[in-house]
Amino acid sequence: MNKFMIRMKAAFDKMEAIRAKAETEKRVMTAEEIEERATLKIEIEAAEGEMKSVDEEEEIRSRLFGDDPAGGALTIEGDPVITIEDQPIYRGSAASQLGAQLLDVRALSLSGGQISSKEVTEARSRLERTEKRNIEKHDVQKNARDENRAAATGGFTVAVPSDGGYFLQGETAIDLMTNGFNNSVVLPRCQSRTLGAGTQFVEIIQLDETSRATGSRGGGVRVYTDKELGEMTASKTKFRKIRIEPKKLTGLYYASGETVRNVTFLGQEMRQLFGEEFAFKCQDLVINGSGAGEPLGILNADCSIGVTKETNQAADTIVAENILKMESRLWRESPGVCYLVNRECKPQLSALSMAVGTGGQLVPMYQQQFYQGVMQATLNGFPCFTIEQSAALGDKGDISLADFGQYITANMGDINEAMSIHVEFINDQNTYRFIYYFDGQPKLKSAITPYKGTATVGPFISVNART
Question: Taking the chain, what is the end-to-end CA distance rounded to the nearest angstrom?
């Protein structure tokens, strides 16, 4: 599937470059740029469709002809040898891959003639080949494996197959971050970095800009009006470093022997539960993270701005003036700007309106409509998403206006899965462990003082508590 991912990544990069160019030039995208982005989106969807089709074909192929011990070459009488480069040991859909691996692990735990020695040998071979393949493909997680080996006691180590610990095939974890209730709203809007093998952190050089006043813009760049042949005046700019070092997120899961025997059910359950929880956790950290041993969330960042409530505004309410004042503090209207709200806010948002024109016609500020089968909402023209991580109605963060193009995240690749048949052996339970490395923080270190006016502006705006 690598070639499809490369195609999709290249298209995504082009889309981002078009958006970034318009943003840098402080303008809306042209019709040609919008059309080009739409074409790139079609290319991405086409590549995704091809990838799914190949995945389905591989599942059928595996079901009909079984696993190939030679590692990717299948020979059928009268046909040439077909070699597929870097094929997974287990094939098919994510759930079927996981199910096949669990059956092999279970086979190694059986004794007393319950399974033939040949089946045990074949199961062990597939698992060990999977482990070798993962180590070769995911050297970035070597440190985590070494830590687990050093910490293990009682005859169990995570990465030693003979002791009952197995790293599950990486392809089974790729789709974990896509599930849950609107938990894929924030992360795709952030600027994401995936660290390469052996890299523990990323440092990004940023302009040290806290004010748009003359002499401070661009970190200190100045442009002067000079006479012909006059001596020019020099200026310089200041920079600062942003260091992002992915932190470990972990999940642990116990499955009874009865559940393991129904591997299809187990695969579906694990993917749903952990897919939702990892996505929920990462999105929650981007919004509410403290920055102490975890990502710095937008509500706690120094560049975040809190708008005060209106005079005599009732507790737990949202009024039109709150929305207008939030937008007046937004530092720039980038294409990626959106509102995030708690579902408790929706009844009040639906009642907001503004008078337009000489006749004072009331126009709703919050609107919803179906587009391509999906309900989409806007608030005063900006996309508006309902998420669980927004604060309760009346608390700061119940409604936020955010430009996630000004937030950077970093990870170390796929979620790492491993399992053991020994940790809870006496309770007839298998243990599953998930590890993902994630960090993030805003680009700006503080709110910006505008060129004209005194109220600071920033990329993340919220309404202070109304109690």
Answer: 53
